[in-house]
Structure formats: C-alpha cells, structure tokens
Amino acid sequence: MIHPTRADRRHTLLAIAATGLAALSAGPALAADAYPSRSIKLIVPFAPGGPTDIMGRQVARIIGDALKQTVVVENRAGAGGNLGTDVVAKAAPDGYTLGVGAISSLAIAPGLYEKLPYNVAKDLVPITMIGIAKGAILANPSAPFSDLKGLIAYAKANPGKLSYASSGIGTANHLAGEYLQSLAGIDLQHVPYKGTSAAVQDLLAGNVMLSVESSLTSAVQHVQSGKLKAIAVTSGTRATLLPNVPTVAEQGFPGFDVPTWFGLIAPSGTPKDVVAALNRVVTEGLKTPDAVERFAQIGGETHPTTPEQFATTIRDETARWTAVIKRANIKPE
Questions:
Q1: DSSP state of 247
Q2: In this structure, what DSSP letter does residue 108 have?
Q3: 167 or 37: whose pLDDT is higher?
Q4: CA distance linking residue 221 with residue 136, whole number of Å
Q5: How confident is the model over 214-218, as a mean pLDDT?
Q6: What domain range is 307 assigned to?
Q7: Is the CB of residue 126 less than 8 Å from the CB of residue 251?
Q8: What is the CATH number of the domain that holds 115?
Q9: How far is 174 from 324, CA to CA, in rounded Å?
Q10: In the listed set 251, 279, 298, which residue is the last one of a domain according to the structure?
C-alpha cells in the first residue's frame, strides 16, 4: 500500500480549495447569463396616449410580471414610427432592447420610401403580433357633412381646401387618407402629427376639419359626447365601439380595408431562446381577460401569434401595401 506523504496531502487540499474558489467565482457569471438579469427597454415609436403606446405598455406589464424584471417604456416618436423602429434595429441583440413595431414601419414604409435606415427582413426579428385596431374618419362638428358621400362632394367642390390630420407620414391612417383620395378622385391636404393625441386635440379645437384615426382610443368618447362626428370606419368591418357607423366599403368603396396592427420585435441576432421565452410569456399574457379588456377599450383586439406567423404577416402585408402605394401613386411628403 502506498501512503500519501504530507506534501501529497498538502497538494490535494490546495487543489480542492482552488476548485472551490473557481466554482464560487463562476457562480455569478453563470447567474448573469440567466435572462433577464437586468431591466429591459421597450421602444414605442409613437407619442404617449395613442394605440401603439397603450398596447406597448400592456405588453411591458406582461413581460415585467412574468419575468420578474423591470421593463422601461421609452417613446421615440417620429417619421411615422420609423425613427423608433430604427433604434430597435440598431440596438444590441441581447434581448434587453425590444420594440413595438406597427404596420407603418414594418409593412408600409418599405414600399413608400426609396431608402430606409433599416431593413425589416435583415435587421429585425419578429416575436409575436400584439393586436389589431380599427380606425375611423372623424370630423369636427362644424364640418358641412356627416357621411362619406357628403365629405367627397365637399372636397370636390373645394379642391385642396380640406385638410386631414394623421398620426404621421407613412402611418396606416395616412395611407388610408391617401388611398381614399385616389379612389374617390379628391384632393385633401395632409397634416401629419407625431401621434394620435396631438391630432385629436387639433381636431377638437377646429384647427383641422378632418382626421383619419388609426384606432378609436379617444374617438369614441368624443363622438358620443357630440364633440366629433364619425364619418366612416376604415377597416373592413364595423367597429364594436361604433356599431352605427358604416365602413368606407359600405359607403361606396367595396374592398376598402386599412387595419392597424402592432407586434413585438427585437434586433436581428437576438438569441432564439430569448425570442422563444418572450413569445411564450407575451402570447399567454395577451390571452388574459385583463389584456383583452384593455385592448377592447380602444376598439382593438389582442392577436398573439408565433414568430413565424408574424413574419408571414409582415411579408404578405408589405407586398399588399407596396402594390397599393404604386397603384395609387402615393408619395411620402
């Protein structure tokens, strides 16, 4: 039998101690790899108060509650949502910067602008769709018309004198306004704002006579109180919150359907397991009564999907609206 010497025992004890220290030092590093280990930033590419902001804050709450981490909402309004979307596209792909992408920046902008600072397919990763909102054409009570037929007649009699507000250039409501002009043969002046709230305030004040809204966030209360007139719903079907207001399609333009949809996105290269984790918690959260009710309050519907389904929606919608933009010869201003 070979008996260990005192030196052997000393070397063994040192080796055990070194191993223990290595394990201890590795512990925090391994823990740091667990997602999320710090706060998450959620970029909302429009001003506070609008549908994108409301849906985005609901998603931030869902993520924060499920992952037990702080989610900070940062509003980066401008360029019809393109500015904020570009911030997401250029962020580190580590799961700590996410964004709310809208139809405007993900599906309309690629067909509307010759150059974009980001490439939707290459620079962004779809996580899940969030929701869909129905919009409407609203008018100040002083407007000498109360339906679409009257609006068109007035616009034809006063070419270029009727202005309409939108939440920004290249947004779904801007496109709805331009699309209607091309179909009806009228000339309206577009007044872009940096969000829905500012546009509605100027409409209420009479600074603009008309507005195309991408959601019913604030429209319903003002229509019900008589402060605004609802001319038409811009989606393919009527809105639950305004059941007596006919769609544009019902008023002489069959097939007219401009929905406003939103989704959760991340920078390209974001780890697949992070995307999967976010998809899981957000889709589950969007199915809760609380989320469904919050979206219904603005005339919206939750619409959770897989990342693959959201990617397909972006591709299909980009093709659709690029064709509409070319056919109607819609140009950015």
A1: B
A2: I
A3: 37
A4: 13
A5: 78
A6: 40-132+259-328
A7: no
A8: 3.40.190.150
A9: 13
A10: 251
Give the per-residue pLDDT at 33: 63
What integer pLDDT is reported at residue 17 of this predicted model?
Answer: 42
Position of tokens 């004040």?
Answer: 205
pLDDT by residue (tens digit) across 68-78?
999 999 999 98
Residue 168: pLDDT above 70? yes
- Both structure tokens of 210: 């008309």
Within 13 Å and on the Cβ side, how many CA atoms surround 103? 25
Tell me how far apart the terminal alpha carbons of the chain are, to the nearest angstrom.
Answer: 92
234 and 266 assigned to the same domain = no
Q: Pick from 180, 136, 176: which is nearest to 156 by CA?
A: 180
What are the beta bridge partners of residue 263?
101, 129
Q: What is the C-alpha to C-alpha distance for residues 145 and 162, in angstroms, rounded to an integer?
A: 12
Bridge partners of 72?
41
Half-sphere exposure of 123 (CA within 13 A, CB side): 19
Flag the least confident range among 15-19, 229-233, 254-258: 15-19
**Is residue 3 in some structural domain?**
no
Please, what sign has the CA dihedral across residues 159, 161, 164, 165? positive
Gyration radius of the chain over CA positions? 25
> Do residues 157 and 204 both lie within one domain?
yes
CA distance 245 to 233: 7
Rounded Cα distance between 230 and 242, Å, is 9
pLDDT > 70 fraction of the chain, expressed in percent and rounded: 90
Into how many domains does the chain fold? 2
Mean pLDDT calculated for residue range 269-287: 98
* Listed residues 251, 275, 309: the one ending a domain: 251
70 & 99 share domain: yes
Q: What is the DSSP letter of 106?
A: I
Residue type (1 letter), 324: V
Most distant CA atoms of the chain, gap in Å: 112
Of all residues in the chain, what percent carry a pLDDT higher than 90?
A: 72
Counts for the chain of helices (H) and strands (E), in that order:
13, 11
Is 27 within the bounds of a domain? no
